[in-house]
Amino acid sequence: MKNKSKYKTHKRIFLVVADNTSEMHQALYYAARRAATANGEVALFRCIEPLEGQLWGGVSNIMENEAEQESKKLLLELSSYCENLGTTKPKTYLKKGNTSDELIKLINTEKRITVLVLGASIETGNPGPLINFVMNASFESRVPITIVPGNLTDEQIDDLI
Fold first, then answer.
1. Which of 3, 27, 65, 91 is deepest in the core (most CB within 10 A)?
2. Rounded distance, CA 78 to CA 42, Å?
3. Residue 129 lies in a domain
4. What integer pLDDT is reported at residue 34 of this predicted model?
5. How far apart are CA 1 and CA 71, in angstroms?
6. CA neighbor of 82 nearest in space, from 69, 72, 93, 91
7. Is residue 95 within a helix (H) or strand (E), and if so which, with residue range?
8. What's the pLDDT at 4?
9. 81 domain-assigned
10. pLDDT at 54
11. How many domains does the chain have?
């Protein structure tokens, strides 16, 4: 049996993608409850996708500013939600670009992130674009990925933790 004192101990950081999907709630609830019970932390990632099509510069700037303000508001709300579930204030990451690409960059840059938590869509046969992406052979993650079924209730998640 190995001596556990050889191993580094540090807080696990559960990264959740703060998007507008219904299954994000299950991922966030799981991550927050798991962090609260395991002396861990939650980190929230939000990405603003580039606008599609050609827009006049002024209109494009207004739309980007609105998206940024809405994203900041969402991250604040989700941070408060996590704190109400017993976690410390989550670290937030707001990026601009392709969500999948920016997520990979963040995971590879922020070495403190130890687990990626995603919620699976309850749509038949389609767990969601991010899960499809991370399950693709071209994605090599340096962290474990926890997939939380989107049909679980908070009480069922509590029973699992």
1. 27
2. 10
3. yes
4. 96
5. 48
6. 91
7. strand 91-96
8. 55
9. yes
10. 58
11. 2
- Do 40 and 11 meet the contact criterion of CB atoms below 8 Å apart? yes
Residue 86: phi and psi, rounded to 5, are 105, 10
Assess whether 123 and 160 both reside in one domain: yes
User: What parts of the chain have a pLDDT lower than 70?
Assistant: 1-9, 53-58, 124, 137-139
Instruction: Establish if 69 belongs to a structural domain.
Output: yes
Write out the residue range of the structural domain in which residue 122 sits.
10-17+118-161
Distance CA 80, CA 99 (A): 23
d(CA 57, CA 59): 6
Q: Is 78 exposed, middle or buried (0-12, 13-18, 19+ CB in 10 A)?
A: buried
What pLDDT is stored for residue 22 in this prediction?
A: 86
Q: What is the dihedral of CA 92, 77, 130, 45, to 10 degrees?
A: -10
My answer on whether 123 and 85 are in the same domain is: no
How far apart (Å, rounded) are the C-alpha atoms in residues 26 and 133? 19
76 domain residue, yes or no? yes
Crossing angle of helices 24-37 and 57-84, in 10° steps, is 40
Is 96 in a helix, a strand, or coil?
strand
